[in-house]
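From the shared-data thread, chain only:
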Amino acid sequence: MYEIGQRLCKRFDDIPEEEVGERFPHVLIAGDACHTHSPKAGQGMNVSMGDAFNLGWKLASVIQGRCTPELLHTYSAERQTVAQELIDFDREFARMFSARPRAEGDDSSDSVDPKEFQEYFVKQGRFTAGTAVRYYPSLISAKPTYQALAEGLTIGKRFHSAPVIRLADAKPVHLGHTVKADGRWRVFAFADRQDPASASSGIQALCRFLEESPESPVSRYTPEGADIDSVIDVHAIFQQGHRDLALQEMPGYLLPRKGRYGLVGYEKMFCPDLKGGNDIFEMRGIDRDRGCLVVVRPDQYVAHVLPLDAHDELAAFFTCFMLEAV
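Structure, as tokens:
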């Protein structure tokens, strides 16, 4: 008889509870080493890869000198919570799998209504697929103070992509597919209603801050001689259609020269797919009057939502865990 073992470690690192905050972890574990459960729905593989991905980018950031070692504390905190949610889901799911189908008039506790089983499976489908994972407030996941500015891009959850039109060449693309899981942080600046070519627009003010201010997180954390987007990659999404904007009138910061030959990067600006009926501002609940900043972690989870003009708060967020470039 096969017996399901549902077990979960208290921590995914070697720091005892009484020493949390006093030292950094030296040993970190992932996958079956810290959580076991039934083989239903492929959760062992899915969650284990999530563990490894979460740990991988954090280790790389610390080893490369981009982030403080405090970042490593978030691994156990984030993934242990996910594993606990998995165990809770798996316990009920395994019970349903093992129970016999309930016949009409049967109300015994060792049976399950097939319709109820089907509804539970559908309800938990997003968790099974890994898209329902949510990280709670921490060093790298802000409190939802400004969540109303982007209701469809939940802090702590995966960045929810949507179709857009690239301004430079009018090519339809998915916004989430334009970035890679390459260790960089992303800032998606959703513009307000103003013409982005206007010197007084929120996008122009943001770009001036990022390019010129000594408090700019881009300036502070980008190594000398590196591409301007090598650590924090900024993208802008305008409300106007791509035919209504002139590329040459957009902020120069969003047309950076990069690489050995200083070629212009044309993939920083996007417009809603109005013709296709896929308006990203409507689809993701973006506040049209105020716009917003959506900060996305290297693992593509939303870390923060801020007003478009919250320059100081944007800088303060990165100060908590990043190291200035030397």
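The longest strand covers residues 185-190.
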